């Protein structure tokens, strides 16, 4: 079938959907590339048969264990065991590209991603205009004027979305479109952030971060960016509204809502400050986005920028996958914990989110006679769980435990609780970066020698060039607020636990709960990752597999240099200017103090970067002339780093 016909038949963008559902009434679509359309289709071999709360068990070991009653018991779902096979990996890939866990309701009905400046028909027009070609940055015309700070985006002006469309595809990677009897919604999947299009071939690189995804700007252009206010520097009292517009709080007292227009305008500025390729995943009421990480995850534990995702199946990778949807793609689920996390009454918190909701059914009107929780309950598609997404709920909800921010596990009806997240972990752990460009063997040998001589191998050791440790923020010297983003969660903390891995969803009346052992040094590392137990928090030692695909560098995306190293400096000189960072020059800035100083200065001169706390500071470990490393040796070091496209040691693969 030719490409234009495929758009009409299966397009995941609005125009194709509307045409299709004229016949069917309901329709949803998310693109998943054929294996032939994937650049890095060569994966690690599957050698792990079970995951036991993070411990890899090979097929040979599993057979030995099955020979004893104790071994057989250890492999049971009620012990937290995940059986890994090709079917689980296939399910993981399907979920990676297609599973939203229901976030289309929050993103469409509450946040209004389709009702702001970037409308569905302009998105469809932009995809159709590609004519089957690929893009790493879909340019979409504005549907209406929207002002963000001192910048007004005019109707008809093109927005650099950073959305990726693969060659020959009729739809955007990582967007699932839903049509239900007259209602159009869009949801996001893991592939939106963790898959990218190779600009040379137009093929998909599975696991590569979408380094120019303009998520913050797209949220700013939505109708109700205020629904994400807890991820920014937003003080309700700083935007006083009409004294008559109040919320009846849980204790019966009246509390004023912030002014809808002024609050929304301020929220737009906060999210729009995020550099392309980053996302603020910490609901700490501070604007501090972090780079989207790769999903070249094998032996890269612990996970997340702080390393706080470290326990449970797949050494914390399932925890990371879960929290994307159980904590970040639906802010209504935080209502029960609002007093602990944000110092706000739950009704005031939810009323602030819903007062600007895109769909009338979800919009809180102070004169409507209902509390915000009642408004949400009246239209909630998942009344059996908090918030709008589909969650399996631990008895400890809304308390944090080190497996989940809030006691919720994003789950799919008809399969075990948290199964899709475990399946995605199995899939992601088999991904490796595309083959690196050929380099001179002697240059790479020299580069590895510099890597060792400069002390890089002290932290960047092991199969994925990480020692799997978390470093205190004072030691790494990076922006401090991110390191302690989870500090408030310590006030309501329960022991780490999860459901037995065969627990059906929806949950039975008395599901089996699996405690997750955590003590000693492992506990201390997790507490450091969360900023608990009196620590200031920390940052994990990242793995170095696939650096050619992950520029810019550091947790804040701040170490960015373009092909022109004299002028394209920092976030304002690269991604904010529509210039992709050059991996080699950006890595040079990571290890060269003179070039880094210029990068840091460029970031400091940008008000947008200052709002987002993007500095490019930290990781002051140098391989430059002052450290006794010549320019030629430095270039060899950079070449070596860019050559690492797979695990560096012969180890059992996940």
UniProtKB/TrEMBL annotation:
Domain Cytochrome c: 442-645
Record keyword Cell inner membrane present: no
GO terms assigned for molecular function: cytochrome-c peroxidase activity; electron transfer activity; heme binding; metal ion binding
Name recorded for this polypeptide: Cytochrome c domain-containing protein
Domain of life: Bacteria
SUPFAM superfamilies with a match to the protein in the record: Cytochrome c
Keywords: Heme, Iron, Metal-binding
PANTHER family to which the protein is assigned, alphabetical: CYTOCHROME C PEROXIDASE-RELATED (PTHR30600)
């Amino acid at each position: 079938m030719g490409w234009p016909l495929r758009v009409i038949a299966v397009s995941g963008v609005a125009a194709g959907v509307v045409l299709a559902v004229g016949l069917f009434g309901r329709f949803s679509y998310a693109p998943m590339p054929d294996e032939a359309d994937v650049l890095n289709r060569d994966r690690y071999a599957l050698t792990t048969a079970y995951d036991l709360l993070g411990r890899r068990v090979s097929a040979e070991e599993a057979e030995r264990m099955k020979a004893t009653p104790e071994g057989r018991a250890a492999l049971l779902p009620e012990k937290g065991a995940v059986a890994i096979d090709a079917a689980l990996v296939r399910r993981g890939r399907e979920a990676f590209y297609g599973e939203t866990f229901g976030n289309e309701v929050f993103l469409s009905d509450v946040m209004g991603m389709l009702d702001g400046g970037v409308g569905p028909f302009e998105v469809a027009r932009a995809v159709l205009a590609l004519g089957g070609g690929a893009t790493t940055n879909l340019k979409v015309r504005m549907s209406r004027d929207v002002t963000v700070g001192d910048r007004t985006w005019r109707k008809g002006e093109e927005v650099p979305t950073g959305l990726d469309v693969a060659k020959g595809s009729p739809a955007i990677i990582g967007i699932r479109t839903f049509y239900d009897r007259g209602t159009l919604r869009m949801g996001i999947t893991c592939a939106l952030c963790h898959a990218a299009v190779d600009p040379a071939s137009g093929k998909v690189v599975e696991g590569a971060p979408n380094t120019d995804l303009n998520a913050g700007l797209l949220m700013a252009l939505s109708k109700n960016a205020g629904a994400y206010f807890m991820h920014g520097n937003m003080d309700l009292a700083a935007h006083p509204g009409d004294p008559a517009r109040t919320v009846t709080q849980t204790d019966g007292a009246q509390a004023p809502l912030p002014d809808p227009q002024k609050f929304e305008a301020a929220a737009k500025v906060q999210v729009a400050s995020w550099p392309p390729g980053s996302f603020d995943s910490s609901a700490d009421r501070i604007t501090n986005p972090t780079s989207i990480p790769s999903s070249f995850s094998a032996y890269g534990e612990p996970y997340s920028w702080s390393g706080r995702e470290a326990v449970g199946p797949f050494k914390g990778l399932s925890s990371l996958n879960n929290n994307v949807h159980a904590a970040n793609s639906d802010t209504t689920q935080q209502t029960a914990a609002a007093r602990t996390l944000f110092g706000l009454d739950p009704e005031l918190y939810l009323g602030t989110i819903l007062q600007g909701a895109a769909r009338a059914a979800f919009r809180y009107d102070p004169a409507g006679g209902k509390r915000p929780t009642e408004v949400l309950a009246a239209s909630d598609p998942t009344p059996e769980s908090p918030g709008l997404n589909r969650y399996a709920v631990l008895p400890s909800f809304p308390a944090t435990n080190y497996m989940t921010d809030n006691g919720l596990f994003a789950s799919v009806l008809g399969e075990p609780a948290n199964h899709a997240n475990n399946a995605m972990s199995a899939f992601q752990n088999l991904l490796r970066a595309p083959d690196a460009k050929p380099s001179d063997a002697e240059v790479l040998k020299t580069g590895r020698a510099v890597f060792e001589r400069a002390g890089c191998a002290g932290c960047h050791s092991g199969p994925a060039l990480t020692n799997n440790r978390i470093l205190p923020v004072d030691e790494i010297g990076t922006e401090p607020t991110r390191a302690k983003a989870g500090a408030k969660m310590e006030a309501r903390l329960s022991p780490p636990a999860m459901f037995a891995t065969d627990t059906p969803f929806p949950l039975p009346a008395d599901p089996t709960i699996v405690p997750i052992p955590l003590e000693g040094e492992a506990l201390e590392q997790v507490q450091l990752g969360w900023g608990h137990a009196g620590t200031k928090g920390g940052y994990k030692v990242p793995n170095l597999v696939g650096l050619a695909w992950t520029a810019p560098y550091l947790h804040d995306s701040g170490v960015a240099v373009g092909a022109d190293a004299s002028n394209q400096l920092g976030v304002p000189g690269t991604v904010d200017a529509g210039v992709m960072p050059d991996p080699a020059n950006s890595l040079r800035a990571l290890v060269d103090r003179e070039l880094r100083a210029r990068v840091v200065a460029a970031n400091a001169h940008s008000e947008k970067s200052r709002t987002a706390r993007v500095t490019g500071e930290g990781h002051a470990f140098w391989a430059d002339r002052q450290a006794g490393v010549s320019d030629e040796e430095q270039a060899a070091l950079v070449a070596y780093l860019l050559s690492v496209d797979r695990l560096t040691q012969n180890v059992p693969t996940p």
